Amino acid sequence: MRCFFLCLGILLASGEPAAAATPDARLQARLDLADRFVRLPELLRDSLPPPQWLRDGDQLVFWSGMEPDSGTWVLVNARTGAMKPLLPGAELRLQLSRLVGKTVQLPRWMDFAIAPDQRGIVFRFEGQPFGLSLSDGRVTALAPADRAALSLSRSNLLSPEGQSIAVQREGGFAVLGGDGRTQVERSGEENYDWQLPDKAWSPNGRFLMVWRNDLRGVHKIPIVDYTSALERVTLVPYVKTGTPLARSELYVVEPATGRVTRIPSSEGETYDWFAGWRPDGGEALILHLSRDGKRLELWAVEPSSGKRRRILREERLESFVGGLDFAVEGWARQVTPLPDNTGFLWMSERDGWRHVYLYDYAGRLVRQVTRGAFPVHRVAGVAPKGDAVFLLASADSTAPYEHLFYRGSLKGGALKRLSPGSGMHGITLSPSGGYYIDAWSSRVQPRIRDVASTDGATRFRLTTADASALAELGYKPPEALTVLAADGVTPLQGVLYKPRDFDPTRHYPVVVYIYAGPFIMVVPWNFIGNAMSLTANAISQMGFIVMMLDARGTPGRSKAFQDMNHGRVGQTEIPDHVAGLKQAAATRPWMDLERVGITGHSWGGYFALRGMLTAPQVFKAGYAGAPGALEEEAIINEPYLGLPSENPAGYQAGSNLSLAGNLQGALKLMHGTSDENASLSTTMRMADALIRAGKHFELLIMPGQPHSPQPAAARYYLDDINQFFVRNLGDPR
């Protein structure tokens, strides 16, 4: 879709004119530099695709992006440390050139999967699937309907015995047998689709669990296509606070017989997830979270009969058990069945920290497995034999957010740290449980991949990222920041980004890059950071000091830390950032607190507005991108505020609309017309409130753009943010 940009309401509260249509050469050079910094990952040479373990033999395959084996796949024996390319990179290019009938150049990396028969890998090049043999390095073209080719898509699920494959199709699904014939097929209807969940196959491949999502009764928002004079409107399901949720129906599919049976639904309005199977395949496990996030239940389903039984219920009536972070990824970490089928591990914050608990399948608590004033983030795995359990946790008190790797026991007791480096670790255990891949980085260490044994006896290097191009650009890691929250007691962690030509004798305007949503941490603890920290660093290159902070109410620490703003979202976050600003500047004279701006996107857009309207004496300029609002999506708001009918005062206190008259500084809003995450109505309502209050502001509408503007529009958006702050905060002095 072509993108057009319309800038409305260009009068500023300060009375300054709008930016010139074409920046001068000096400003353009700074804008180009900022764009290079937001695209730092492109300069990092790394072996990006995740390595894949073979089912047997403690062997793995990884794509090598570094010398001496750059541009091909390498087979690794974890027991011996031996590494051998499947074929030289030049040979891979030659074979592919012959198969496609032209000379080809390989991309920096190619995604791949282990073939269903475990004898090779499958990958896609220029849209066509290929196979590569592990034994002789021969590349073959695959038919699109080949089971190996279909297994490349993560939405398609191969059965455990490797014969049948469940294929996700638009609105529906099909199960194809080993002979390629369709065993079961279902088509969807508008807003009533079928969905294959992760871990859908039973261990013996007899049954398949499938969701059907009913959005027909859900509120719809209009998305308008403006590409022609005859506008087209699409109504997109969007559950706003207080409106009906989507309904999830669970079905058991038996491909051999073609039987498709619906499982009785849970009572009340819930968010539902498929959590996997007991190892013997006797029962499937289902999670149900109440819409207010206060009750989480684990149910078991007997696939032959369809009978359901509740195993356990966890409630937290004074706050919540799960919210948006749980809905996005937490549910997949909630339940870990033990290999011997005697019970499962359950994650809970009942003692004030996220820890691991052992239950049997009757729902009886056996014991608490981990304890301490730290959170466990994930059970990375359980040893097939013995009582070893492997965890990612923040058990180092000096690094409250770092994800470190530990070995523990199902019997409880102290944890043994296995990861040698600081920062953020991602762990992938081998099928045998004897080895693991440790992919990690810190703020100062580019990503490293190691292979190690779980007994701690062996460890060797797999890959090391090359960050030399970043150093040549002038990249420096952010400065760590520790301050106290507005309560004067609670420590908060943050970072400061500086221009690459930073001079401590000068005085720099300051920009707060904010998100502050109660379901995500934004301060980076790894090397490359995240999309928001990349943007913050890019903005700093314009001549600003940019601060990021994880305020009270965000996850990753104690339950009490996150609950500090429960029921009163919007009331503590800006005071925490203001307190952090003042403490940071008290020992950093190069931070000019007379010239402070604030910006953020999505939930950060809501808080950028919040800063301008609740602390106008601090923030002189604010840019709010695609701002959310408390009336918007239910899963984003209700677990943290309660239902609107139960906490009307909290919703009113957190609303920005009634505060429009407080605006003093320069303000700009941006929104894409095709945004399905934060509906355009949030910006329209805010604009209306500002107009009614007689407050001038700028508005950038980006036709056809989704919640996160796409590449060309994303550059336009970043340039617009940067020019706005240069215009309103000025240069270093």
From TrEMBL:
**Which species is listed as the source?**
Archangium gephyra
What's a Pfam family this protein contains? DPPIV_N
Superkingdom, taxonomy of origin: Bacteria
Q: What PANTHER family does its record include?
A: DIPEPTIDYL PEPTIDASE 9, PROTEASE FAMILY S9B,C DIPEPTIDYL-PEPTIDASE IV-RELATED
> What is the protein name for this chain?
Dipeptidyl aminopeptidase/acylaminoacyl peptidase
Q: Which UniProt keywords apply?
A: Aminopeptidase, Hydrolase, Protease, Signal
Which InterPro entries is this protein grouped with? Answer: AB_hydrolase_fold, Peptidase_S9_cat, Peptidase_S9B_N, Serine_Prot_S9B/DPPIV
Using the record, list the residue span of the signal peptide; answer none if the entry has no such feature. Answer: 1-20
High-level lineage: Bacteria, Pseudomonadati, Myxococcota, Myxococcia, Myxococcales
